[in-house]
Amino acid sequence: MTTYSTRRIDKRRAALRMAGLRPIQLWVPDTRRPNFALECRRQSLLLRDDTQERELLNWIETVTDVNEWE
User: Fold this and answer.
1) How far is it, in rounded angstroms, from Cα 19 to Cα 24?
2) pTM, entire model
3) Which of 10, 18, 52, 67 is most buried (CB neighbours < 10 A)?
4) Residues 3-56: pLDDT tens digits?
């Protein structure tokens, strides 16, 4: 038995596929995990004195246009 919302979702997905798009599954870190902040800090400290990391951050800052950010 299909519900109205299931049919609506299926219709939307079919339209997106017809537009040349495809669905993907994206896994991201779980920020709710108890040690998430500690792991972020650990990894950040590993990069603190890294020359390539500093160069990359400087480049990002140079090319980023923030003029119209609100």
Assistant:
1) 15
2) 0.54
3) 10
4) 999 999 999 999 999 999 999 999 999 999 999 999 999 999 999 999 999 999
